[in-house]
Amino acid sequence: MLDVGSNTVHLLVVDARRGGHPTPMSSTKASLRLAEAIDGEGKITRKGADKLVSTIDEFARIATSSGCAELMAFATSAVRDATNSEELLARVREQTGVELKVLSGVDESRLTFLAVRRWYGWSAGRIINIDIGGGSLELSNGVDEEPEVALSLPLGAGRLTREWLPDDPPGRRRVAMLRDWLATELADAGAEILKAGAPDLAVATSKTFRSLARLTGAAPSGAGPRVKRTLTATGLRQVIAFISRMTAADRAELEGVSADRAPQIVAGALVAEASMKALGIETVDICPWALREGLILRRLDSEADANGFVGVDGSADDPASVQTIVRNA
Q1: Taking the domain 2-102, which CATH number applies?
Q2: Fewer CB under 10 Å: which end of the chain, C or N?
Q3: Tens digits of residue pLDDT in 126-182
Q4: What tens digit of pLDDT does each residue of 207-238 get?
């Protein structure tokens, strides 16, 4: 899978098969900060486009050499919001041969919810999910694999850092202003999500939430994906008070915070806090699966439906294994 996000381009080689869980085989990342390469007219600059094209070309070659049977390439908010996105997509296609698909914000929300549902299963009941990317925030609520309500808001950690917190460290007044503004912005969205029903389980996905949970004492990534990790509203408030006084360089020294994420982790924490408050949530479980896994699962489902592999009794024939390449903003 080739994921073009607001901050990074991520190539993830996955061993995936119908009826099985997607298993990551290798991962390659490049920090392009594409959202920062947008000019005053909303266009991705020539320099930014050049870097994107060369990176996609390089990663497509890696995919081929890795023996991948299929390349799934997608882009999220940075490309979606650019006023020259069609021109950029055409250039990528012509110069690399890669068909880059732009996902809508609602599709991001829906596919992430699918991954969460598959991870926790039907016994989890009604799930509310929160996902914070570089350019957007996705919220969803449902009891099935398709959420009853799925929203996408332009409240990503990178976007808000650029618009609200340009100083390093961010000023206390600006942090307070952003906190108040987010509360207002999320009031209606929170009400719409909750209208579908109160959750049996509140879940959070994305690198931002994983980093915040680690800062509050959750197990490190090396402990494996199946270790239970949570983030509480109380712990989150304590983390915000701590990291908002630090420079990005100092935050990058904290365990669980990468150098790429350090500049925007304060804004991400404020979005997390405001989202949980708007939804009346005190604790979220951190799910290791998110958009990428949702895309793979939907692709495998579509393949099974198209070929008639799933029978009336739910059995599946020919559970062929497929290697595919599957986004953090």
Answers
A1: 3.30.420.40
A2: N
A3: 999 999 999 999 999 999 999 999 999 999 999 999 999 999 999 999 999 999 999
A4: 999 999 999 999 999 999 999 999 999 999 99
Compute, in degrees rounded to 10, the torsion defined by CA atoms 201, 184, 107, 69: -80
Domain 121-291, classified CATH 3.30.420.150, yes or no? yes
Q: What is the 3-state secondary structure (H, E, C) of 241-270?
A: HHHCCCCHHHHCCCCCCCCCCHHHHHHHHH
Q: Minimal CA–CA distance to 14: which of 282, 293, 224? A: 293
Cα torsion at 297, 302, 308, 314 (round to 10°)?
40
pLDDT per residue as tens digits for the range 233-289: 999 999 999 999 999 999 999 999 999 899 999 999 999 999 999 999 999 999 999
97 burial level (CB within 10 Å; 0-12, 13-18, 19+): exposed
Eight-state DSSP code of residue 282: S
Domain with CATH 3.30.420.40 in the chain: 2-102
Nearest to 48 by CA among 39, 58, 59: 39
CATH 3.30.420.150 positions along the chain are 121-291
